[in-house]
Amino acid sequence: MRVLILGGTREARELAHIASGERGFEIVSSLAGRVRAPLLPEGAVRIGGFGGAEGLRAWLEANDVATMVDATHPFAAGISANAAAAARASGVPLVHLRRPRWVEHPGDRWVRVSDLAAAARETAALGERVFLTIGRQGVDAFAGLDRQWFLIRAIDPPEGSLPPRHELILARGPFALEDESRLLAEHRIDVLVTKDSGGDQTEAKLAAARAAGIPVVVVDRPPLPEGAQIVESAAQALDWLRETRIRHE
């Protein structure tokens, strides 16, 4: 059974690894190609877009894909919507693999917002020295904040306009708590901005902010398509694939 994994996340790579080692599955992982040096999963890999929902539907049919796993980043709303539309049009079963959201702990000073524009408005009122950890996309939402100084961390250089006062760090997680605490102290950070990506790769910054008493602006995830079937781990996704294979046979 040929399985298309829409990937780019650690969970996607884990699923490709464990599913490739099981008889009965042929795994093809698809990466968007937005990261310059992506970590490649085990098995066959294609890189690049499909051309929207219709292009994905055509690719599924042309490549005899039996089932699909959307294991993209929790904020990759566009591809998740395209995957749902293509699955409906083609009849290919689809499951969304999403790591759990972060959980607020005692001592946290979180301000939850719905999008990056709201995050910029909250940030303007909360602090002067900002640690911005939202990835390379969407940084331009903060470009108009000329009073704050920004420490911007991303894997690749951000797209679009940047805040006039900033320093850029290019780095890939995981990040240790000790290092995150040192970073906050050395740069005198007084507010952290992040997306609710979940997972433990970058969670240490939240613990560091909690220990330092720093407020955190947390951007909520976009909703998944209506009626989406969701699993929260690679192991759960593999169980779903096994059940789908049984029905497929």
Characterize the structure shown.
The chain has 249 residues and is an alpha/beta fold. It has helices at 10-20, 52-62, 77-90, 116-126, 177-186, 204-212, 234-248; strands at 2-6, 26-31, 44-47, 67-70, 94-97, 110-113, 129-133, 149-154, 166-170, 191-195, 216-219, 230-231. The strands form 2 sheets. It has a 6-stranded parallel beta sheet with strand order 3-2-1-4-5-12, with helices on both faces. Helix 2 (52-62) packs across helix 3. It is elongated, with a radius of gyration of 19 Å.
Shape: elongated
What kind of sheet is the major sheet? Answer: 6 strands, parallel
The span between the termini is 9 Å
Biggest sheet, strands in spatial order?
Answer: 3-2-1-4-5-12
- The total of beta strands comes to 12
Low-confidence stretches at least 5 residues in length (pLDDT < 50)?
none
What structural class should be given to the helix and strand makeup?
alpha/beta
Order of helices and strands: EHEEHEHEEHEEEHEHEEH
Rg from Cα: 19 Å
